[in-house]
Fold:
Amino acid sequence: MSSRMLLGGHITHNAKRFPDKVALIDNAGRTTYAEFEAGANQIGHALIAAGVGHGDKVAFLACSSRQWVEAFYGVVKIGAVAVPLNYRETPEQISMMLEDCGAKLLFVSSHHVEAFGALLEGLSFPVVMLESLHLFKEAGSELVHSDDAQSEHDPAVILYTGGTTGRSKGVLLTHSNLFWNSLNEIIDTDMCEGDNTLIATPLHHSAALNCWLLPHLYLGAAATLLEKYATEEVLRVIAKERVTNTFMPPSLAREFVLHPLAKELDVSSMTRWYVGSGILTANDRSAMKACIPGVKIFYQYGLTEAGPIATVLKEEDYERARDSIGRAFQNVEVAIMDDQGNMAPAGVIGEIVLRGPTIMLGYHNRPDATSDAIDEKGWLHTGDLAHMDSNGFVYFYDRLKDMIKTGGLNVYSQEVEAVLSKHEHVREVAVIGLSNERWGEEVTAIVVLHDGVDSSSEILVSHAREHLASYQLPKRVEFIAYEEMPFNHNGKILKRELRKRFEPQN
Structure:
């Protein structure tokens, strides 16, 4: 087996190819590939000295930084498993995840000591501050590792998903899963050695880690890391560092193009704009292209369990499939399955199922959940509803859990959102189902208007009536301020929070 299939192998390779090339950039400086390799090796040595070995779990509770990435590669180089945790979770949730994975060591940043101080003091294993990482390293140590001791099928990371309600599930992704996802991204989204990608979202998120950081480091490109997302900072960093590409959900892309600095700063170095986790309207695309003429927009769909990317709508396919989420990613099988477990013909709505080398090994310590998610033929069941046309383009309707049952009929919330979002008054919209004695669920639109705009539910429903059947129309429209719309750290609207707020009280 080639060491290039292992995460640490491509850093070693690139350190030999171009030792003086910049690999990592953050607000504290730059790290070359030679420095990156040496630092990761030193951390690997220090981990071994601390009793961490092959298959052991090392957790991260920290903002994105050069130190974070260096420590991550130190972990995977020795065959241990990295467990990036979402620092926005509660101490109780973090404690559960640490216990579930059986962490042997935790890397933490000073920003999170106050919030998690009591938890950190009670841990029975070492806690290492990333700001003091130089003290942890064994200076001058060169890590000697044997590829024979590792397999491409060994877990490399555990990414917890679904931590806001119930028991979180740790998604096990192998070295091979991550290699293939990186390769798919490189091939299907035009990544190249000369890139400088901006990692603007936290590295505990699968897209930031697996889709932008790892592929670019595999190529020998540069990655610029933001500690915390802020639109003004994103614009300034793109202009300063001549960033070539970045990822944003549609909500953050809208903030980007509306910001005054978007017209003042030179952001023309951006050649590719990756978008996902929400509806990207034709107006959004037009605004993005007006902001950065010539930029290529890649709309991607996926989920952590898939590695994560499953489909991509490329720039050249937009005009013939503008309402789709694209076609299957390189080396990923995508199909639509009906309720009886049969493959649905073209045009018929069913569940998106995925298969291929990027699909997770399973859920950590959850064989029950794993068997529910991956069937005996290896298909990952996404819980997402869509149809596929005769050319392989997939048209997304809704999450199964977000589908609204009203009066015995199915309403796909994203279909209603797509119509409402096209109205010139609407900045953001989320459609949810709320309990209703007569209908079962009531189609409800939660709307944020553009600044200075005065609108009404009648105006929006009248607009929707031109494009939707009567049963799909919102029976209730609620207007809220932009600051009240609950977004997660990746700009995705948290519908569960809206349901809690607007659900009728018994």
